[in-house]
What we know:
Layout: H1 2-19, E1 22-24, E2 39-43, E3 48-50, E4 59-63, H2 69-76, H3 79-88, E5 93-98, H4 110-119, E6 126-129, H5 134-139, E7 143-144, E8 147-150, E9 156-160, H6 179-188, E10 203-204
Parallel strand pairs: 4-5, 5-6
Antiparallel strand pairs: 1-2, 2-3, 2-6, 4-8, 7-10, 8-9
Amino acid sequence: MKKLATLAAGLSLATALIGVSCSVHANTTAAVGQPAPAFSARDTAGRTVSLADFKGKTVVLEWVNPGCPYVQKHYRSANMQGTQREATGQGVVWLAVNSTAVDHGDYLAPGALADWMKAQRAAASATLMDPDGKVGRAYGARTTPHMYVIDAKGTLVYAGAIDSKPTASVSDIAGATNHVKAALAETLAGKPVTVPLTRAYGCSVKYPSGA
């Protein structure tokens, strides 16, 4: 009985730790043209990162899963990293978000995900862990990648695909329109985004069951 009690206590603690890994303000749902849902999440180094930390700055959110062929397309070609560097070079904050459930085969622990991003020479400002899927659900993230641009006023101004070629083929990148670059260019110039919403493509986000 003592062993069962100890095990139950351990499970409760683990659940509690996962539960505080990220938080989203209640009754928030992302919609282009509306304020972006506020959230806090831990990055791969265990630091708490909040959207509010970047008030007054343009922010890009990128849903990432290294096990997804569509994610691999954009990283192996360095298309994602190039887009990240161009953005951060202009003062944009880039947050990669991983909403993969802990019990899914694609899940990478924070250290392993950090190592993968480093090996890819990614230029994200931070990589956030969202194992309970709260941030992903708040934004309606359906695929990896799924991209969002938030302007300096905190308004969601773009949501959708990284580009206009919904395939896993690297050869299609050259002829594609990079929607994120286009949205950032207009946003940073103080102009409305011409194409604010596109259909995201990629692998489904591996949310925990029931999330």
